[in-house]
Design goal:
about 850 residues; Immunoglobulin-like; single chain; globular; seven-stranded antiparallel β-sheet; GTPase Activation - p120GAP, domain 1; 20 helices
Length: about 850
């Protein structure tokens, strides 16, 4: 979900690796151990939770999380909780990284000290305030000064214990005085509209001086005064109302202007320093990659995009723009991700991969090492399989992976690691059954393999067979090195990374999956001496029990099917594919009266055929909505039911109102439901952003429930449910990479000149680049640099224009926004240099 800024779209995303915690404080009990989990939060909104690691003060999580961030945020927070079965889970500590500090830790493992958490430090939201200093002339000719404090509204206040009934107190403090006023309580909203004005007498009456309009007696005393706004959540509990945040403003700033209006971020209450030392709570290891993409309209990217898309036709392909990107990037994966997505979006991935694969095969001397390195080719194929083959994995592996994770059959075959109650032969048989079942499922799944993968495999097979005509097996090994070694085996080993499980498996299950993955990888390798490929003797002896010829024949038949020219997966299109499932809250359909009893927790399930919900996972569906009946999927305004993160699935008869657990999950459901129903010819063009309640639509006040919508539906997304790709965003990412590695592009230009002049062995300083044709490569580099510099100028101009138009203290950039303060400093420096 992009934020629109005058023709430019801004995307935010974050990729997080939650490593481990260490030295957590001991539990105040006899065993001293804790059962801990970690949450990821945007401000205080939880968007992800790890599994629970039991009985440890140094829990290892090893979990990855990626999300598109659908809203503005101030900081990314990580909380460590201790599970308590008898009462609410307790917070051990937190790590809070301000948004403007995320780049400091970009893509590197960092240990963060856990900080203490209390109610007064958990603040979010902003307040709109107006201050006006005025003078009142009395009948006797003297004046006094009064301060008018207008509390207009707040936005984004935290919801405490499931509710938010906010009010504000306004306090004028100074030497020997403290005057307090209070707004009305606003029920069931975290975006209250107050619009109340409070008056405070500032100074004693003094003689009126016409020459000095604002001559205030006792100015020093006024300078010591401040206005304080405190936000509270009205609570029915005996412990009192909950503090939501505060704002402190000294009155001396009103000397320059008698009135001031602005938005402010609420701040924590200052209760003094805590007695705990920084290392008392332990630490947490994290790797965070935060990305902001500023995407211009499509025509801005035409020169660079066209240069990239014609890469497959460039001779030699090493002189193409896409191949150059792979050469200059620090990691091939860095280049492969946006390249694959761009070529997939424009339907040119197969010719591009065929071209770079052919070039790599020609450089390969030994058929046993074909496609074994981390080249641009292998990384691009890996990324293509991960994107195009995600639903293929769901169909083939997910059912049995779920069973392995739930049943916990012992499968350890290392005699050294056997537990006392385990039997080695029983474990071997358990493992063998799992291996056989997974192997059979894989080798019988050829008809379900996505077409784009089959076309790539056909190209690899033909290229390898032509290069190594004396090796009859190379046509198989060229394909098996990807489908088994780099697709199925990694998915079995780490199912959470391929969205087959929500979390990293527990240690026992992880060990079982490791043993299965090793065996499947070897069965699919078609190497001559497979037992020798195992370093562990227990794995070699386990593998010796397999009938090699039987498994080899099955592998070859499977490889033949998925690498055949012209094969199409018509049958796989007809079978239901599970796209997403999980618990959410839904409002009873057709109910007219408002009430919490109308909202119930249900298990939702979406396939490419239907959208259903049931009471619990596995139950019979209580409601089934065919995809063709989904006319639109849109957000629902919070004011409809005073509930956040709601959306509506609009059907011909009525809309189904649903609440997701957080903003990220709501965006995911809206996106995938929109995509899967995009081909519906009856899709709406307008909708009602609010609910129909008490005989009228809350948005437009129309009384008929069948009144056409009052707001245009949001823009359509790609109909391909598997590949939600924004071509302009991927081109912007490629521009950013070229810009980042501009020095390497320049060095590559030097290498082309050197090779052209000397026409001899590459100089050592240029040996890292693959340059088959210096003249053609040099020409491409010139075009890349020109396109990148043009886009760089557009970005610089946009930043200058934005700097001129943006107001500090506006609703978008409240006072107290550290990231905007940093932005102001940067732009001031840029403006100074440009003069």
């Amino acid at each position: 979900m992009a934020v629109e800024e005058e023709g430019l779209r801004v995307f935010q995303s974050v990729k997080i690796k939650i490593g481990e915690a260490k030295n957590l404080p001991t539990y105040p009990g006899p065993n001293k151990m804790r059962d801990c989990y970690c949450t990821v939060n945007l401000d205080q909104e939880e968007v992800f939770r790890t599994k629970i690691v039991e009985k440890s003060l140094c829990p290892f999580y090893g979990e990855d999380f990626y999300c598109e961030i659908p809203r503005s945020f101030r900081h990314l927070s990580f909380y460590i909780f201790d599970r308590d079965v008898f009462r609410r889970d307790s917070i051990i500590g937190k790590v809070a990284i301000w948004k403007e500090d995320l780049q400091k830790y970009h893509n590197r493992d960092t240990w963060f000290q856990l900080q203490h958490v209390d109610a007064d430090s958990e603040v979010q939201g902003k307040v709109h305030l107006e201050l006006r200093l005025s003078e009142v002339i009395t009948d006797t000719g003297v004046i006094c000064h009064k301060l008018a404090t207008r509390v207009l509204e707040c936005q984004g206040l935290p919801i405490v214990n499931g509710q938010c009934d906010p009010y504000a107190t306004v306090t004028l403090t100074g030497p020997c005085r403290s005057d307090v006023k209070k707004t009305k309580v606003k029920k069931k909203t975290n975006n209250p509209q107050f619009d109340e004005v409070f008056y405070f007498e500032i100074t004693r009456p003094c003689s009126y001086n016409k020459k000095s309009h604002f001559e205030i007696e006792d100015a020093d005393e006024v300078d010591k005064m401040e206005i304080r706004i405190d936000l509270w959540n009205a609570s029915n509990l005996k412990f009192g109302d909950e503090f939501l945040g505060e704002l402190r403003l000294p009155l001396k700033f009103l000397r320059q202007s008698s009135s001031y209006e602005a938005w402010y971020f609420l701040q924590p209450r200052d209760n003094g320093n805590k007695s705990l030392k920084p290392d008392d709570l332990g630490s947490l290891r994290l790797n965070v990659v935060y990305t902001e993409d500023h995407v211009f309209p499509s025509d801005y990217y035409s020169p660079l995009r066209d240069l990239l898309l014609k890469s497959a036709d460039v001779e030699p392909v090493s002189a193409s723009a896409a191949h150059v990107l792979g050469e200059v990037c620090k990691e091939k994966q860095e280049a492969a991700i946006p390249l694959v997505r761009l070529f997939l979006h424009y339907g040119k991935i197969v010719p591009f991969i065929s071209a770079i694969a052919n070039a790599e095969v020609r450089r390969t001397q030994d058929p046993n090492t074909i496609f074994r390195g981390n080249s641009l080719t292998s990384k691009c194929i890996d990324e293509t399989m991960k994107l195009a083959g995600m639903h293929y994995l769901q169909v083939t592996l997910k059912p049995i992976i779920d069973e392995i994770c739930q049943v916990h059959k012992p499968c350890e075959i290392d005699p050294v690691k056997l537990k006392d109650a385990e039997n080695l032969e029983t474990n071997r048989e358990n493992l063998r059954q799992y291996v056989d079942r997974i192997f059979t499922v894989i080798t019988k799944s050829g008809v379900s393999c996505p077409t784009v993968m089959c076309d790539i495999f056909f190209s690899l097979r033909e290229s390898a067979a032509k290069r190594f005509q004396g090796d009859p097996d190379v046509r198989y090994t060229a394909v098996s090195s990807f489908i088994f070694l780099r697709f199925f085996a990694p998915a079995i080993l780490s199912p959470n990374l391929f969205h087959l499980t929500p979390h990293h498996p527990d240690p026992q299950t992880s060990r079982t999956l490791t043993l299965i993955s090793k065996t499947i990888q070897t069965l699919g390798s078609l190497s001559k001496s497979k037992s020798a490929s195992f370093k562990e003797s227990y794995m070699a002896s386990f593998y010796d029990n397999f009938n090699e010829q039987k498994y080899a024949d099955a592998v070859k038949n499977f490889l033949e099917l998925i690498s055949s020219s012209g094969r199409r997966d018509h049958k796989s299109i007809e079978q239901p594919i599970l796209l997403k499932e999980g618990f959410m809250i839904k409002r009873a359909q057709g109910r007219k009266r408002f009430g919490m009893k109308n909202f119930k927790k249900r298990w939702f399930r979406l396939t490419n055929h239907e959208f259903t919900y049931q009471k619990s996972k596995g139950d019979h569906p209580l409601c089934s909505i065919p995809i063709e009946n989904i006319l639109a999927v849109e957000k629902l305004e919070e004011e409809s039911f005073k509930m956040k993160n709601m959306f509506q699935v609009i059907q011909p008869e009525r809309a189904l109102y649903i609440q997701a657990n957080n903003c990220v999950e709501a965006k995911d459901w809206i996106d995938i439901l929109t995509k899967v129903s995009q081909c519906n010819k009856k899709r709406l063009t307008v909708y009602h952003p609010s609910a129909y309640l008490n005989g009228h639509w809350l948005c437009c006040k129309a009384t008929a429930d069948n009144t056409p919508g009052c707001t245009p539906c949001t823009g359509g997304l790609p109909a391909n449910i598997q590949l939600d790709i924004d071509g302009d965003r991927e081109t912007e990412r490629i521009y950013s990479l070229f810009n980042l590695y501009m020095s390497k592009l320049e060095k590559m230009e030097e290498a082309c000149g050197s090779k052209s002049v000397y026409d001899g062995p590459e100089q050592e300083e240029y040996s890292t680049f693959v340059i088959d044709d210096p003249q053609e490569t040099y020409k491409t580099l010139k075009q890349i640099v020109a396109s990148v510099k043009t886009l760089e100028q557009e970005h610089a101009q946009y930043k200058r224009d934005k700097f001129k138009k943006t107001k500090y203290g506006s609703q978008e950039h409240p006072i107290g926004d550290k990231s905007f303060q940093s932005y102001i400093r940067q732009q001031s420096e840029i403006s100074a240099h440009s003069i």
